Each structure stands twice: as structure tokens, then as C-alpha cells.
């Protein structure tokens, strides 16, 4: 016995199957994305001491720095890349906070998958903010960060305050703004 679809119903059948397939793909993608963000946060929380103590090589001077070197302030460790377009508006917003609260916040911009010449060219062409620019590949892969840009905020005691993957608008920084305004 063979199962056949009448020609007059085939288009409807194909559309229904297509809609179901697209819905399942979208749902599984959303689930995986949320799951990867959750795993990243748990891993960052578990390894916050290691993140604080990790030496990150400065892009311009080849010196190393650590998040722990700035524990008297809120530290925003931003993982970014020249090809990740949301990095630009995030940098602008973070620079506004840095200017408004210079004694409360430090920004460490950890570049991922970019070479020194690419970073320097990008920063010269775009506005160069007064951040600490470092290479962040090792930490990015170790923490299994789900996308770029992603930022981790540490309080002045070196404890992970929160993290956020992605950037669409300033609402991603609401928590940071709230603590800076206290």
C-alpha cells in the first residue's frame, strides 16, 4: 500500500510541512541560543576568580593587565571584534558612562579573532575610546562566550555582577547604569 497525496492538496501539504519545519528550526535555534547564554553565565560565575587573575596582553604596548588590577572600580570586560557591528554603539555607550563616572568605572575591551594591525586600523578609522584594549581570544574560547559583543561586569570587590551577550540598545546596560548612579 502506498501513500499518495492528491495533486490538488500537494501545495497545501508542502506549505504546512514547510511552516512546521521552519517553526521547529526557529524554536530549536532560540533554545540553543538561550541555553548557550545560560551556560556561559554559569561558567563565568564559577570561574570569576580565574577571569580576574587572567593576564590579558595589551594591543598597543604588549604589557599585560588583569581585571583584578582595577578592583577599586566597576570593571566592564567587553569581548568584541572589528567585524561585529554592534560593538560600535556599545563602545559609544560605555564611553559615555566612563566619561560621566570616571572614578567608578574602567572598560577593558578584549578583541577576539582580530590581529594587531586590524585592531589599530579599526580604532584609527573609528573613534578611539579611552579603554584598555587587549587580546581576548583565549578567555573568549575558554568561557565559551556565545557571541559578540559580550560583556561581563565586575563590582569593585571583583565579584561578577552580571554578564550580557549581544547588544541591540542601551537597555543591555540598565543594570550597570543603576549601580553607577548609586
Record the SSE blueprint.
Layout: H1 7-46, H2 48-53, E1 56-57, E2 64-65, E3 74-80, H3 87-100, E4 105-111, H4 116-125, E5 132-135, H5 137-142, E6 150-154, E7 160-165, H6 174-180
Provide an overview of this structure:
With 182 residues, the protein is of the alpha/beta class. It has a single domain (43-180), classed as Glutaredoxin. Helices cover 46% and strands 18% of the residues. The protein has six helices and seven strands; from the N terminus they run ααβββαβαβαββα. It has helices at 7-46, 48-53, 87-100, 116-125, 137-142, 174-180, and strands at residues 56-57, 64-65, 74-80, 105-111, 132-135, 150-154, 160-165. The strands form two sheets. The protein has a five-stranded mixed sheet with strand order 5-4-3-6-7, with helices on both faces. β6 and β7 form a beta hairpin. The chain is elongated. The chain starts with 6 loop residues before the first helix and ends with a helix. The model has no long low-confidence stretch (mean pLDDT 89).
Q: In angstroms, what is the radius of gyration?
A: 21 Å
The CATH topology name reads Glutaredoxin
What structural category characterises the helix and strand content? Answer: alpha/beta
- CATH architect. name: 3-Layer(aba) Sandwich
Largest sheet: 5 strands, mixed
Note poorly predicted spans. Answer: none
What would the principal axes of the Cα set say about the shape?
elongated
For this structure, the quaternary state is: single chain
Tell me the strand percentage band: 15-25%
- Give the number of domains: 1
Percent of residues in helical segments? 40-55%
Order of helices and strands: HHEEEHEHEHEEH
Distance between the termini: 74 Å
- Mean of pLDDT: 89
